[in-house]
Write a structure and sequence with these properties.
This protein has one helix and nine strands, in the order E-E-E-E-E-E-E-E-E-H. The chain is mainly β. The chain has two domains: 88 residues, no CATH class; 57 residues, no CATH class.
Amino acid sequence: MYTAAVFCLEINVNGQRRVIAGGPAAEVINATVSLYPGLQEGWLEVAGSVLPQDQPVADARWLAAALAAGDVVEVRLVESEQAAAPRVSRTDPTARATDAIPLVCAFCDKSHEEVSGMVSSRKAVICPECIGYLHDVIHSSDEGSD
């Protein structure tokens, strides 16, 4: 937790505080509610970016949670000394970082410690599991077009 008062997003679901997202290194914080009507599912994500001291920007996630019908999501802008520290990662392999923030798969957020054999391009890193999943998706759509 950070101790100095900073401008934050306070997220409450059904009257219960889920997170106070913020921190002195936060550059941007987004609270997104996504609805998937065909699946009858909802999703809440509080994410953004942080700028660690003397390091390149990093992705930040404060909250990811499933929502159900009838859930009430409240987002408040507050100044707080109780901002939660985000989970930080990077997907850009060209970032010239010397800190311990891990590179993660741009699709599933797994780090190189969780899965071996990451493949990188100029803009992202992807793990073998996601490559396999994408391969299966492409080949299943090819079979349907015959």
